[in-house]
Give the backbone structure.
Amino acid sequence: MATIFTPGKIYPLALLLRLALLLYGTYQDAHSALKYTDIDYLVFTDAARFTAAGGSPYDRATYRYTPLLAWVLLPTTWTGAGWFAFGKVLFAAADVVAGWLLARTLAVHQGMAPARALRYASVWLLNPMVANISTRGSSEGVLGLLTAGVVYLVLGCGSTGSSSSSSTIRGIGRVIAAGIVLGIGVHVKIYPFVYGVSVLLFLDSRRHQNHNQNQKRGTGVLQQRLRNEITPSRLTFTASALLTFLGLNALMYHHYGRDFLQHTFLHHLTRIDHRHNFSVYASLLYDSAAAATAAGAPDGATGAAAAAVEKVRIESWAFLPQLLLSVLVIPFALAKRSLPGAMLAQTFAFVAFNKVCTSQYFLWYLIFLPLYLPYSSFLRKPRLGVGALGAWVVAQALWLQQGYNLEFLGLSTFVPGLFVASLGFFAVNVWILGVIVQDVGGLEAGGGGY
């Protein structure tokens, strides 16, 4: 039967969608006070100009990214029509390639028919939110490509347990490649480090399950199991990821010194992003930002009051539940059942519990959605799926309405408006996360290697 879900139709449609948005964005930037281009893209391109002039990308205030990004965007500094949009084109192309990897993963590792695999991959490829964020100049599509690459490579490592020497070599090659890609991803943006635990648990998990079953009645079972966990695949993956990450960091430190460490990594431990922030901690960040401003004021009483506020900053401890869930609880509960499912749940928890949550961060978990949907309750139970999507959209809309009143109209909507809207969006996300965890936890451990 004829279907729209063929490579000759889906990929041109995905590219056409992004081209249309790029052209529309150019028009909006030229004719509207409300710009289409993301402010982050202006930061990226300014940093590239400083770099092209022989300076440091960190000469641009608020540049908090790896210098690699400024280096890659050097063509945006070239003279000539259209070069300024080079980065947007690159980011859009990256998210299309990520969609292609998703389709390949579904077809190769889950055995789906190509048309069905493309149908699920289209959730990413034809998603207007994904295309919009990339064409506005956000680099999150590149992270999507890197994380999709990690999944594809790791799921192809099953041959490492084969008796064939050529299969073993190919499997180890994929392990090394997966480690390199993850190392690059963590260097580009810190959050992919959470996937390391799930990958390590997934690698060789089926073989360990058989070993453990055979050794239940032996002596020294615990010691033997611990020895079984340290496998060549896991050591190779860890070494390749760590060496790649450290190598890139050493190179950047050699060029830019402490500025690189401060702005790329250390800044994120103390950042206070209080605008356009869906996080449940948003109101606390507003208070912290106000306290920081007051602390610098000449009024001694005001400064003392601000210092007192600074002593109790609940949002500074936001990383504890976030990391507990995304680095420990979820990987150990789900990684051996489904690597993509565990990574989806990890990312969803990481974003929902993060002290900073913007629309760009949603792409971090949307990249895994096509790999989860085939066994998702949201598809098996259409009412649940429609209800979850509706609640997620409505909760965002309610927050955006309060945020618009605050940031554009100057109305004080902190309490109850913005705070209640943040709590509502957080509650919706926790509910959705619970459904995802239940779905992935219901899979048979090691059943299909997927």
Observations:
- Residues 159-163, 300-312 have pLDDT under 50 and may be disordered.
- The first helix runs from residue 7 to 31.
- The chain has 22 helices and no strands.
